[in-house]
Amino acid sequence: MAIIDTLSENRTQVTSFVLVFTISYILFIVIYRLFFSPMSKIPGPWMTCISTAPETKALKEQRRTQWVNSLFARYPGAVAVRTGPNSVSFNHPDAVKAIYGHGKADTDFAKSSWYDSFSTTGESLFSTRSKKRHAMKRRMVAHSFSAQSLLSFEPYVDVTIAKFMQKMDEFATTQEAFDIYFWFELFTMDLMGELALGNSFGVLEAGKPARYSALVEQSQRFSNIAGLLPFGKMSVRILSWVPVPYIQKLWAARVEYLEYARMALERRFQNDRNKVLPTGKPRQDIMQRFIEARDPETGRRMDFDELRAETSSLMVAGASTGSVTMNWMIYYLSKSPSVKSRILVSLEQMFPDNVDGSKPIPFTRLNKLSLLEHVEMECLRLHPPIGYTMPRDTPPQGAVICNVFIPGGVAVGVPAAAIGRSPSVYYDADRFDPDRWREQGADGATMKTAFLGFGYGSRQCIGRNVATQFIMKMIATLLLRYEIAMENPSLVLGTKEFTILKPDQKYRVMLTRR
User: Fold this and answer.
1) pLDDT given for residue 1 in this prediction
2) Which of 8, 13, 59, 420 yields a CA-CA distance of 20 to 30 A from 150?
3) Beta pairing, strands 110-111 & 392-393
4) Could you tell me if 484 and 184 are in contact, meaning their C-beta atoms sit under 8 angstroms apart?
5) What tens digit of pLDDT does each residue of 425-460 get?
6) Annotated binding-site residue? 461
7) Can you list the domains of the chain with their CATH numbers?
């Protein structure tokens, strides 16, 4: 009995020691982060110093971008705010260049572990963290987004725009007010189906979204939450084990989404890879270019899993961001008749044989209309599809960013939505004014540096030209073809955050054939 009592007493002492040690360690970490860490002087709510809970809560409540913006408003004049124990957001053009610009190997800011959660069946151009693998992938697919490729994609854009206009003609005939953003989403989903999978989803004809679009959103939300966990690639699997209905719903959507992408890509391989057009040449869409792509240095081609990962990434990047940008362009042009009138006059002068918008508009001529492109840029400044920080890790030795020292291994970045409305960069920052992009000299250069609508540096969106092509063609065709009026001209739209920033309420327009 004495031995048993001794063992029991020892076990109690060990348990007490472990408990005291654990509590002491936690207290030490909390005190260090609050008062002695090199980042303790960076402004931010005290909870962000010790936990990612505030950011996670904001993400779940679909207001992470607004939350970060509120921190900068709470600490006016601060170039940096603490958003987590190991994360800092900046709001200055110099930080854009320092974090996202081209640096030397020993001062490079690598992508953070947040991106690992977006790697699905393999690393995509977006999710890969390796600078070497990113450079290799970019070499392989760069030709897919060249000017020559844009010409080969244009017939698919024209066909899909024609289908869209058939639906718009019906609304113009009935004079019925309708939610144009809903139809933009259907358009971009069908178009990206054509370009990425070789076949549209048929959602324009059906007049309702495919289940795939909901799966994309839910899967991206799961990745965002997983990216806040400090476990790198394991965070996705760890999060999938959490027995919370909300998490399990998002995980099930991710699994279904990836399976859908696999089956769609397999159909593409079986049915369309060798498909030839009347010209006798293979079908030239984005996926065909990806299939044929070779690394010019090694001759390597992408395997099926890589193609599947790129397909998933393309569907998100092209469909979601394109539709919301067109939405804001129509919204602001409806509220800015003078700007809309100037664009229309230019379009009628450029295309005198197509003043009713009944013919496809060639992008090789349309891309010379700088005012229309400036409208796109201004909408992306005010409402970037991705408003929060695209995180990078500071180099091991740390870095000084805007005179603020950040230790090594800290996730840093510049939120596009915050710097896009920075009054120190943009005059009348909350006002829609596409003419600001005509600014030359130092002010113009600073504005362009702070513009993160397509990212910045070597990692900026490689599909920018493709997106600009179909966005400008769509808006130009709508303006030539219809008089567009908002049902409620006094309506003011805000944003609500899903994976991307979307309008916070529906707004309806009415069309009249010109």
Assistant:
1) 55
2) 420
3) antiparallel
4) no
5) 999 999 999 999 998 888 899 999 999 998 887 777
6) yes
7) 37-350+358-513 (1.10.630.10)
